[in-house]
Amino acid sequence: MSVISEQSVRGGSVFKELSVEDEDWEPTEIESLCMNCYQNGTTRLLLTKIPFFKEIIVSSFSCAHCSWSNTEIQSAGRIQDQGISYTLKVKSKQDLNREVVKADSATTRIPELDFEIPAFTQKGALSTIEGLLDRAVAGLEQDQPVRRAADPGVADKIDEFIEKLKKLKEVQDEFTVVIEDPSGNSFVENPVAPQRDEALIVTRFKRTVQQDIQLGLKAEDDLDEDKEEPAENNLEAMRNEVLVFNTNCPECNAPASTNMKLVQIPHFKEVIIMATNCDSCGHRTNEVKSGGATEDLGTKITLHVTDSSDMTRDVLKSETCSVAIPELEFELGMAAVGGKFTTLEGLLKDIKDLIVSKNPFICGDSVTTERVEKLKAFGDKIEKIMAGEMNVHIILDDPAGNSYLQNVYAPESDPEMTTEKYTRSFEQNEDLGLNDMKTEGYHEEK
């Protein structure tokens, strides 16, 4: 530790030398007080950029009087919006040479030894994985002479643990190093960057209120305020981020990821949009789920398509919604194309693909010319509707009341669109599974 003179800082020499706009960064030397012998030593500051990371300030102090020295690092940027966690599986001695930036606020763990270095117990350092192990060993050995005099049993156990830490450097068995930093300013080198490192997992996370307080971003008084409305905070966080969870591709069964987002549709309600992308076969699916309960009344929306601009209207078609075009004598059942959040043009394209392109009855030996011509004519009419050359009525009938068609005149009424609420029939309630549903007194014995 050293104390830099206030005059040097006020004079601006430090910040002038450490300007990130300079291409050739030179070390800045500052006379500062040695906290070991209280004589004046020298602190050297250097702004440096770590590839695929950011700029950091390396501070090195040395005292010519007592030969004491130390090194620290500080982030040259601000605290990041999210915390970061690095999980490294050390498999060989080469992994011990990976560069590491460990900020003051970072916690270091080795799960195999149940070992943890808490946040703010060590100064920030620019080191390697091997350097972190050496620093941990040095920290444990520092007070061993005092422990041996006061409690030899505890000192012996710590000696055994120190030997385990030293053996890790031989990498006889794989072990894991976890560095978790709520400030987001720590870093573990990826030697194959920009390619993906199979041994390194990097995740970002939202800080807790307690972590914000430790970083000085919030006052302690905010802790009680945040505890009062945890449900609202969690719901607000879901609205602002895309949730990702692992799944399997429905086509090739390879591991894939599904993205889920809670979306508020203006003048309607919240819906959940889910999209799955498979990197193995390229298969892509998307699905829409209602964010609320089944409505008390069904909804029937009728739009008179008079212009090609109507094709840009947003459409939310739930999986319980049927689509009808009376002019074409066409009706599509409720579960035919699933739930979708798209435009009217996108919905018509899906209908055309389902009826014409993906129809299994227009290929093979059993297909007839009459059937092919009939379906081709239907596809041509759909194309004319999308081009605005044919005026038709499109009816969305959803007994669950969870479908939506954009009103471009909102909040005023749309002259070309009508929305009708109706009471479901017994058959519709049966299809939705509502007739046998019991939500009150279900726990009571009959």
Task: List the defining traits of the structure above.
446 residues; alpha+beta; five-stranded antiparallel β-sheet; disordered N terminus
3D structure, described in words:
By secondary structure, the protein is of the alpha+beta class. 25% of the residues lie in helices and 32% in strands. The protein has 11 helices and 25 strands. The chain has a 5-stranded antiparallel sheet with strand order 1-2-3-4-5. A 5-stranded antiparallel sheet has the order 9-8-11-6-13, with no helix packed on it. A hairpin with a 6-residue loop joins strand 14 (243-248) and strand 15. Helix 3 packs antiparallel against helix 5, helix 4 (144-150) packs antiparallel against helix 5 (152-168) and helix 9 (344-357) packs antiparallel against helix 10 (369-386). The longest helix has 18 residues, at 369-386. Residues 1-23 have low confidence and may be disordered.
